[in-house]
Amino acid sequence: MNNWCLPHKRENVESYLFLKKLYSNSQECPRSYDKLRVNPRKPNCRLLSTHDDYSMMSKLPKEKTSVVTILRNPIDRVYSTYEFSVEVAARFLIHPNLTSVARMARIAQQRRKTSGVSTLDIWPWKYLVPWMREDLFARRDARQLRGQLHLVANSSYDVEDILMPLHEYIHHPIALDIVHNGATFQIAGLTNNSYLAEAHEVRHCVLKYHTLGEYVLEVAKKRLADMLYFGLTEKHRESATMFANIVGAQVISQHTISSSSAEVATNDHSEQSSITNTISNANDQGNSTYQTLEDVSSTGKDEVARDNLTVGKLMEAYESCISSLRNSQSERRVNSLKRISPVNFTKEARRQVPEVVIQEIASLNSLDVELYNYAQHIFTEQQGHMTQRMVYAVS
Q1: Mean pLDDT score across all residues of the chain
Q2: Does the pLDDT at position 243 exceed 60?
Q3: Residue 180 has pLDDT above 50, yes or no
Q4: Which positions fall inside the Sulfotransferase domain (predicted)?
Q5: Average pLDDT over residues 285-289
Q6: What is the domain extent for residue 104?
Q7: pTM, rounded to two decimals
Q8: More confident position, 148 or 22
Q9: Over the stretch 131-166, which tens digit does the pLDDT of each residue have?
Q10: What is the DSSP pairing of strand 229-232 with strand 278-279?
Q11: Which of 6, 86, 60 is nearest to 251 (CA)?
Q12: Of 199-213, 225-239, 286-300, which one has max mean pLDDT?
């Protein structure tokens, strides 16, 4: 049997919904969004949720681990990272100042020791949200000193009286280190959250000498090609179908075999059959989207229905969950952005961003652009192979 590893970015919440349907709560390892957690009481847990990059594989049995992930269009990924950082940071504007924020953070930290993990514990948001939070408070303080009450925004991505404009954000040292080419560095295992001792030095060499990035890109391409499955956020439905038919079908088959034989079930419980799903990125003022994921994806019915699960039923359950999740995320975003009105991040607002800024983002993410183009090609091939297998199965 295999282990499953999903380096989780925000876009991977959809895969997480699938995995929650495939595994029971008792098979889930302690959540590891802030750091790797191993519970001796659950030595054979099969679903591990984490925000680590590919270097996490150094902590897992490679011969028993299959990796799956989802890639996103690099331009959209930068937009999303900027928007989400601002959205979460804006929730703190309920406080009068940063001193009040710090006081409440200490109280919240004590509560989280028993209640879970905050967005502020999770990479990369533990860096990006405080950065945007300080920026929002500084600009609000400046407006109050000027007595500026009414604001007009021609573009939600360029309202310097309220928040750091996108064109300024993309050139900031923090964005250069953490945001740009994030997919390539994550798959190469070279983020600032890496388990590799040399990661920091290598990453900064690439930032300084751009030609070295080609070597990192080749590593990322090879790892991507070797993955059991990867999807594309922009091809949501196709990716979901492929995930269900490749990963879902394998796990369902394993469940069926386990259920049909007491001997196999006993073996499955042994250390040789540990299935690990590693999920690595998302986000309350402190509590995260991941709690929402838990709410929409975990029901008592799942435990009962899992033994009778099919690929078709998995897709039906997924569609129901993803709809609830998106509604919840949308409502949360609306409430957060009210605090920085008239800023409102929408598809229409994105279309108003000057082309020169979009070209700068593409240039700053050249490795990710090339990796994504490569991924699109491989994805199309995989989709063709899957369709062919399904046709053969029917005939």
Answers
A1: 81
A2: yes
A3: yes
A4: 33-89
A5: 52
A6: 3-394
A7: 0.82
A8: 148
A9: 999 999 999 999 999 998 888 888 999 999 999 999
A10: unpaired
A11: 6
A12: 199-213
Encoding tokens for residue 255?
């469940």
- Which token pair is 283? 């986000």
